[in-house]
Fold each of these.
Amino acid sequence: MSGEAETVLELDDIQSGVLRPRPAPYAATYIALRIDDRSAGRELVRRASGVVTSAANPNSPLADTWVSVALSYQGLNALGVPQESLNTLAWEFKQGMAARANALGDTGESSPEHWEKPLGTPDVHVVLATVSPDPHRLEAVVQKARKTYQELPGIKAIWRQDCHALPSEKEPFGFRDGISHPAIEGSGIPGTNPREQPLKAGEFVLGYRDEIGGIQTTEPEILGRNGTYVVFRKLHQRVAAFRQYLKANSTDAEDEELLAAKMMGRWRSGAPLALCPLHDDPELGADPGRRNDFLYSEDDSAGLKTPGSSHIRRTNPRDSSIAGVVRIHRMIRRGTAYGPPLPPGVLEDDGADRGLMFAFVGAHLGRQFEFVQSQWINDGVFFGAGDDKDPIVGSNDGEAFTVPRRPVRRRLQGLPRFVVNRGGEYCFMPGLRALRWLAELKT
Ligand code: HEM
């Protein structure tokens, strides 16, 4: 066995939310805090290090319930992390999400000037995320998390977002999510696609070798080791507009479902077109052992089953022939839904805010999140589709969507934007030792 194959992650120093998929069903809460006083900030981090769960013990008394803590660049600065240490973190992180708006396609309605305040302002210092299998257990953990900041006068809670699994257990457009996750070497947590070679740990956690052979470290090493970057985005979903588009561009209800599946790459049940291209197979969609067991190139290089432009094939082209190397653009996702579901069959917008709190986890903000968002979602050049964008989450403004088909392809026009970014931030989720180091900063 080679040395690299023996990589063992220090699970007891890694926050649980980094590696463990969220429970299903789930309830979650995100709380943003501002640090007005440095010593209160350090005390907050000290207390947080006591409630944050590590990835080591899935059978802890809290079971599937966990608290994670992440800090923005401004947050680390507010704690007094020396500038020479801050400079060793990713430059995109230092800029913050609002400053990266153009690169991310956060333009028009998604641009920072329209974001929900205080998202996108320098006030977001700390994000506490709590996730649990049900609202009852969540409340107990939120209470515990609240204790970490409530009695600290220099700390202010400035934003909160509650999320919960919809009764259908699907995301607001109606698709099963939380299906495909990469396998990570040394994590002991199995991936979902048996055909995907586990990725090097350094793709997701700082301090380990990555797919390119590099090891990301910070100065001092303890700050970064076992930490990772997290991207939070509150993505509003226009469910009525999505349903209207499907209806207007299909011949009947069956065709509507096929079109929805062609846009996503999976039927709403979660069953992939790659394995059942003609009809939905709900049993397959519900089977974690089979529903992600596929590649594209051998029998579907032309996208006749799963269009190259569909959401899942764009965001993870697997073995498709594209410009570039897929394995350096993989990511861990932790999406949780917010807002009331739009009742089935309703085609008119009811004005409610609903969508996904999207969370990315990975060690390389630039070549993972930003690359996928800008090149694979908001451009089509990488697989020869010009400037076509992701039909579901792209920043569309009348673009087209192509469904390869014989004898003639199906080309849909006039895609509107179905997903609007309401704001977010780039954060760093330190390891548990790093949290204690931050709490003990002296200057
Ligand atoms: C509201 C916005 C979004 C919705 C409704 C959505 C929905 C979905 C659904 C239903 C799946 C298939 C099931 C699964 O594997 O979990 C999926 C997969 C995926 N999505 Fe999204 N998504 C959204 C935004 C994004 C964004 C912004 C990114 C990246 C920047 C992204 C990256 C991915 C990736 C990497 C996969 C897995 C692909 C695979 O391995 O097959 N998604 N998404």
Note: The first helix runs from residue 16 to 19.
Amino acid sequence: MSVISVPQAFNEEDLYVDLAPIVGRALFLKCEGFNFAGSIKLKAAAEMVEAAVRDGVLTPRSILIESSSGNMGVALSLIAANRGYQFLCVTDSRCNLSTRLLMEALGSQVHVVAEPAAIGGLLGARLDYVRALCRSDDRYVWLNQYTNPANWMAHYRTTAPAIARQFPGLDVLFVGAGTTGTLMGCARYFREWRRPVLIVAVDSVGSVVFGGEPGRRMIPGIGSSIRPPFLDESHVDDVVYVREEDTVRACRRLARGGFLFGGSTGTVVSGALGWLSRNSARELTAVAIAPDLGERYLDTIYHTNWLKSLYGEDVLTAGQPVTDSRQLPEGCRPRSCSVHSGLEHASKLTTRP
Ligand SMILES: Cc1ncc(COP(=O)(O)O)c(C=O)c1O
């Protein structure tokens, strides 16, 4: 039995879905959506708030403020409500309605930015808005998930060791990139681990995290229109880009197996399957991280009209099944990125005793 008195005290850390029956390939999905915030962001939010309290930055008169595509906003809403802080979330028009309502139900204020900035798109506009508010009133405390080391530290301390405990023979870990907190925390942990693990970042086409060309992205959580300040590419072995159409198809395929996951999980699964079919000469022990569940996306990814209006009439019928590597996007190395080739590492893995 688990008994808790603060909502952030509960997080299911050891639940994995074996995707083999659904996708026909060995891939374990670490489910991060089973906590009261419904996403992996609870860990980063809790760690950032703890650090701010410890450092004396957060005081009873503080107003927490954060730019978020949704999940960090929900996580901070829950913690702020529990600890008695005011919280203002600055999001943009891509934030799901249910996510916005959830934050408001927890007592937070939500401001929605609709006009993209000339540099940095909607995220750039959100960050400008937060900076302006912070200048206007010194009660605002901006934890800044993009620059706060407590973000990646949360995953270095919890997510990565939890995977290491359950998968002592881990070969490759697939992690989606947003702020790159999850990616950097896991990558740093596994660099120091007792055996080599390939770290493969999964990003969406149109994101500039690894220096790609900016483009339209409608699925929140994954990708970024600015380069995350704490991304260190030397810890990343390979990068895979996934088109949003493939994200949607992967989500729908998982849903047909009874597993309703969020958009970034579809991206990570699609990218991981493409990478595995191109690179693994033998069955690798592979884990992918699923940041949240699908209920918040019922009016977007799981809504046929929304899909068709954005991606065209045949978005759900076009393409091969997600297990077929021919329909998966080419893994590509961004021009400005010094990541190693996954193939190179995979062949090293296959020759290891
Ligand atoms: C649904 C979802 N997936 C993935 C991510 C990316 O995680 P990170 O910011 O640690 O890179 C986020 C971050 O907000 C998210 O909300």
Note: Confidence is low (pLDDT under 50) at residues 321-353.
